[in-house]
Design brief:
Length: about 200
């Protein structure tokens, strides 16, 4: 496994930034480009884990003998999965739903090892928003920051002002649970500490 490369099965700039924060730089970035539509009746945590695994396995077929990491982030209000809004009105609807409530962010991470073994982890973070005024929602939607963000917000940006409480992994909400990712990699023979400073 000494020559095995680290492949990230995602094009998310946020995941690359998070990995860089802990001195992990993928050797290859190769997005899986899958249909991310939930299966009928699929619960949020299961959806995140399934997509993470499918992404990792899809890309691993193109990079046999390497470590391939897949990830997915799902914002859920109860059993309802909030996807990535495509319009301002859809983003506004997400924010109205989250206003004054606690919701959960489900992170799925999956690793395919050089030997072809697969491992999956689930991470859950509880996020509580303050009650949002209509003007606050309008201003946030006008910022455009919601584009491409699950649940229509980015906790690492302007939406941080809305967060009254958080329980669990902050980096999971941003897009990748770092502690669990390092543990998953290390537990299967990839030692990120050796790469720090390289």
């Amino acid at each position: 496994m000494g020559d095995a490369r680290f492949v990230l099965a995602s094009a998310s700039p946020r995941r690359l930034e998070l990995l860089a924060q802990i001195a992990l730089k993928p050797d290859i970035v190769d997005p899986a480009a899958l249909d991310e539509t939930p299966v009928t009746g699929e619960l949020p945590a299961r959806h995140a884990a399934r997509l993470a695994l499918e992404k990792a396995q899809t890309v691993a077929r193109r990079h046999q003998g390497d470590f391939v990491l897949g990830a997915d982030t799902v914002v859920a209000c109860g059993r309802r999965i909030l996807g990535k809004p495509e319009t301002g009105d859809a983003a506004r609807a997400c924010l109205k739903l989250l206003s004054g409530r606690r919701h959960r962010v489900h992170g799925g991470i999956a690793l395919v090892t050089p030997e072809g073994r697969a491992a999956v982890r689930r991470v859950e973070t509880a996020v509580t928003f303050k009650r949002l005024e209509p003007r606050e929602i309008d201003d946030y939607v006008a910022s455009g920051e919601w584009h491409g963000k699950a649940g229509g917000y980015a906790i690492q940006g302007l939406a941080a002002r809305f967060v009254r409480a958080i329980g669990g992994s902050y980096s999971n909400v941003v897009g990748l649970p770092l502690f669990e990712t390092v543990q998953l990699l290390a537990g299967h023979g990839y030692a990120p500490a050796r790469r720090i400073g390289t």
